[in-house]
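Hi all, posting the design record for the shared folder.

TITLE: backbone redesign
STEP: 1 of 1
STRUCTURE INPUT:
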């Protein structure tokens, strides 16, 4: 029995992927992002596939496969683009938050554009597939973005939390 070399190539690719080291990166955010990129996309794709199949009466298996692949593709593209744009435009502490909010909106739009063909593939052979796929894409991407935003918000609160009892930095 011959095994596919794809898992080995994926593991090597992940291990050799260049990553910037940032002194201000909080550990919960780093681990949360790593989980999202490696395993979270599979879970998100499965949940999006289930939601799409449930709401529109489509094949759950086809939706799950299409949306797992779509989530990995859009997340990796988004991480590369977001890192590049943040490094280029967030030059100081005053513009960082504004740029971050713009990037959140931009990645949502990018996700819609990248993942729509995969959602459309789930509607292959159905009537009015175009309008249904646009509605389905908006539904599943909005649902997953609410979950992702909430998850990263909680991770950010953990990594940047000040002394919660006094609202100040802990005394040394």
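Okay, here is what came back for every position:
SEQUENCE:
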């Amino acid at each position: 029995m011959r095994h596919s070399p794809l898992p080995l190539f994926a593991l090597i690719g992940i291990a050799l992927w260049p990553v910037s080291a940032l002194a201000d990166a909080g550990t919960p955010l780093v681990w949360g992002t790593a989980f999202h990129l490696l395993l979270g996309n599979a879970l998100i794709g499965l949940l999006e596939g289930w939601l799409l199949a449930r709401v529109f009466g489509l094949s759950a298996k086809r939706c799950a496969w299409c949306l797992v692949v779509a989530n990995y593709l859009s997340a990796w593209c988004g991480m590369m683009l977001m890192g590049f744009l943040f490094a280029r435009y967030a030059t100081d502490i005053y513009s960082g938050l504004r740029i971050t909010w713009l990037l959140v909106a931009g990645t949502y739009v990018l996700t819609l554009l990248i993942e729509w063909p995969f959602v459309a593939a789930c509607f292959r052979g159905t009537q009015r597939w175009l309008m249904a796929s646009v509605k389905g894409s908006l539904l599943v991407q909005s649902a997953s973005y609410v979950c992702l935003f909430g998850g990263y918000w909680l991770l950010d609160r953990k990594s940047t939390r000040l002394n919660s009892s006094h609202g100040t930095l802990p005394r040394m």
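COMMENT: The chain has five helices and no strands.
Let me know if anyone wants the other runs.
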